[in-house]
Amino acid sequence: MNKKSTEQNTTNLPSNYQLHAKMDLNKDKKINMCIQILFFGIVIFMIGLARVLDFPIKSNWNVSVKILITVFMCAVYMLVHELIHGIFFKLLTGVKPTYLVNLPFLCTGSEAYLNKKSFIIVALAPVVIGGLFLIAMLLVLPSDFFFSIYFVTVLNFAGAAGDYFQVYALLKLPSMALIQDNGKETKVFCK
Predict the structure, then answer these.
(1) What's the predicted TM-score (pTM) here?
(2) With contact defined as beta carbons under 8 Å apart, do 122 and 85 qualify?
């Protein structure tokens, strides 16, 4: 991909840009604490929502089967979440993404520089696409699946806490900012 204007995504940092800020969601204890609080806040909200709306969390399956199915669905969801990030990185930049296991997180990154709009799309695509799909599954699958799918739905919305935090932090940046997220740290470049 050739060098493009700053209105678009690029694989080359324009010469008049310099590093403005770095964000490492794993190493920065303050950021990590904010993400954890947001994660648990969403979990508590969604558990409360399930109780208030009396969601059908009982099933005819025995507990072991319910746990195995739920754990399997969560593992598949986590992989799909990262693949969606990767698909949008590739679609918007033409650059093949990288996938990392950085426990307790799975991470997707790219060496490409994205404008704010594109970065927000990459960051939020999994939670939006996953949320719509999971809500549809809650409505159409038999009630025996409800608990497992709702658990994955909670994981979808709460597990994107790091993505929400990045979007919130980047919304404050100037419109011409370029963002590079290699999966380990996010760098912001400005003129």
Answers:
(1) 0.84
(2) yes
